[in-house]
Design brief:
Distance between the termini: 31 Å
Largest sheet: 3 strands, antiparallel
Length: 136
């Protein structure tokens, strides 16, 4: 299955038709959206998103980093659960390079005054896919 590529929050029409992405590119974009979106904003998908925006302004401590990483793990696990439900119903809509089979690493680090996350997952195709994104 494919999805339209987003660039800076808008649809990417650099090719004048809308750029289509599949596989690991689609997976990275989807995970990035789940991490960026506030939890419970979408009434039709209440489990979509993260509580990371609620953490803005917290002191940059090791405990804070642990809380962020814990929230990231919850988000990735919720994504996997929803993906598994959809895959069970319609496996033909997925490529092996977009189906997560294992979470390898979830970590965060401070970069200047921002907190960044790194999420590494293994897909059904056996490839490692990574998301690196500013979260706060």
């Amino acid at each position: 299955m494919y999805t339209l590529k987003l660039k800076n929050g808008d649809l990417d029409f650099s090719d004048r038709r809308g750029t289509v992405i599949t596989g690991s590119d689609k997976l990275v974009q989807a995970l990035g959206l789940w991490v960026s979106e506030s939890l419970h904003v979408d009434r039709f998908h209440p489990q979509y998103g993260a509580r990371l925006q609620d953490m803005v302004g917290s002191p940059q401590t090791e405990e804070f980093q642990y809380q962020v990483e814990s929230e990231l793990r919850k988000v990735v696990n919720e994504y996997i659960l929803q993906q598994a439900e959809q895959f069970d119903r319609h496996p033909e809509n997925f490529s092996k390079s977009e189906v997560i089979v294992q979470v390898l690493l979830v970590t965060s680090y401070f970069k200047n005054d921002a907190l960044w996350c790194s999420v590494y997952v293994r897909t059904m195709a056996g490839t490692t896919v990574s998301l690196e994104q500013e979260v706060i």
